[in-house]
Amino acid sequence: MIPTIFAAGLTISLAYALPHAAVKRQVSELRSSYDFIIAGGGTSGLTVADRLTEAFPDKTVLVIEYGKVEYAPGMFDPPTAEWGGAGPRAGSFIFSSLPNPEVKNKTAFVLAGQAVGGSSCINGMFFDRGSRHDHDAWAKVASLDPDTGAVRWDWDGVFPYYKKSTKFTDPTPGVVTKYGYTWDRSAYGGTTPIYSSFPPFQWGDFHVAREAWKDMGIRVVDDCAGGDKDGICWVPTSQHPVTAMRSHSGLGHYADVESARPNYDLLVQHQVTRVVYTDGISSGPPLVEARSLIDDSMLNVTAKAEVVISAGALHTPTILQRSGIGPASFLKTADIPVVLDLPGVGSNFQDHSGPRMSWNYSRPGNFSNTPSDMLDPAYAAKAVADFNMVPALGPYTLAMGNTAIYVSLPNMTADYMAIIDKMRTMAADDSAGTYLPADSDPTLIAGYKRQLSVLADFLSNPQAPSLEVPFATGTGFVNINLHPLSRGTVRINPSNHLAQPILDYRTGSNPIDFDVYLAHLRYLRRTFTTPTMQKYGAAEVAPGASIQSDAALLEYTKETMGFSYMHPCCTAAMMPKHLGGVTGPDLKVHGAPGLRVVDISVLPFLTSSHTSSVAYAVGEKAADIIIEGWRE
């Protein structure tokens, strides 16, 4: 059994490292036209391309990708010698945001994938899913009533696509006994070669946080992938279960299938600059204009059926804006003719954020296997040898870790209703718009008020997570605000439309976010007083015992804030146009025939998860929507 699985994984890995017949680099290699053109060969885009070429063997599909085919190792593959680092990895876009005035003018550091496979090539491989309450709230914000026959994006409408999108492999009995992994087989069941598994290794102190959280009364959940996500969770990793190599869409949705799909073409190292409606906005589908990154030449490609923009939350809105689709007032200042006034394009920008905490031990445990062991040449050499075994073993199989807590506001603080009441008041009066960017369109204000109202209900639910804290080893936590209320923008550079976009995070622009950060910090402080932590003499280092008042904690939060946990989203939100939305439940761009958006930008707000699994599920569901529509 193992040699067969290994051979399959090795075949995929080797195939990905070799040239592909379908990869195009020159205009002369393209067909005269395509049925479907997908702008962006990332997590969602390649998922859609795979499904369309499979469902319609007589229809042609072209994917245009900015990056190229590159090797994409896991987060901790050799030769990295320090845990938390990374070996040679696929290309990345690197962004620094505008300064955040409410957080001491600090900037956000953000990465996005620039390779075939997109951000699934560079992410932390932490493969959790949103909760049922996230998706049910999503449907409410998007005004989707399942009784009307609209496409369903509530939990029942999305859960089958979470299951379809990945292939989960059970850990071996010995690993289960050693680490106590639990899971629910009914939450899985897909056969797609996007692999999900638990690693055969944990650092020696992995259990400390879990035991401390149990001391705090946080319940242990057998599996958090089935919609129930309030408690201590085991989280799978997006890696091959035998080789422990990163599993990403460039493998599972391209390299693994392209040789059998003569209708599947991939054009690399080209930037989709815009879509063009040659006879007016009602004449779709549009042409796709692209620029070669090799020789700067331009080309137009004709789509006979439709165009799908799948360039991610940072580049999808910029393609639309360069096309004249976006906020009319901004387009005019950027000297772009307005084709379609759609204020929500590039608005509603969000990312997960939060401060850090740390402690030390006065009586540290005698833990075997800690990251410092990697500094021992003999230990490091054995770690490399173990990783090269079949199956792979040892610390290089771990990635970022596999455990986390997800906790709701009602389970953190008795004062949670004060936060909820602020949100509801803001949603009901005229103050909401003052926390959005200046001169926000009235539709954006209306949509934001609706979001505040729905999120107030969501965050008052004791089963709906507000906080995530992942843990693998060491003496520090990141505490992640899963549902920030501040909203930023993504805009093209007015002086250079083809340059990388300008990100304005506006972190902390809604002051309620700071109330939530402080509630999270005060709650997590209890960790250090638990019997488990006190057994090792744990003492809080940061914020530290001297920092107790709200004012001092607020100052600490602003000093240690992580502005981005690399989950940018929501810049082409699935909401009605009169609420500032860009896409409908069928993912079609409002008022733009033959044009859809399929990526993480369609979320109206962040889910209680890292975004990779959501992007796969969105791609799978979108593919079914498109296939069903064209079959009809």
From TrEMBL:
Known cofactor(s): FAD
Active site: H567 (proton donor), H610 (proton acceptor)
Binding site for FAD: T43, S44, V272
Keywords from the named record: FAD, Flavoprotein, Signal
Gene Ontology molecular function terms on file: flavin adenine dinucleotide binding; oxidoreductase activity, acting on CH-OH group of donors
Keyword RNA-binding: no
Stored InterPro entries: FAD/NAD-bd_sf (IPR036188), GMC_OxRdtase (IPR012132), GMC_OxRdtase_N (IPR000172), GMC_OxRtase_C (IPR007867)
GO biological process, one term: secondary metabolite biosynthetic process
Residue span(s) of domain Glucose-methanol-choline oxidoreductase N-terminal: 312-326
Family statement: Belongs to the GMC oxidoreductase family.
The protein's name in its UniProt record: GMC oxidoreductase-like protein
Native organism: Decorospora gaudefroyi
Lineage of source species: Eukaryota, Fungi, Dikarya, Ascomycota, Pezizomycotina
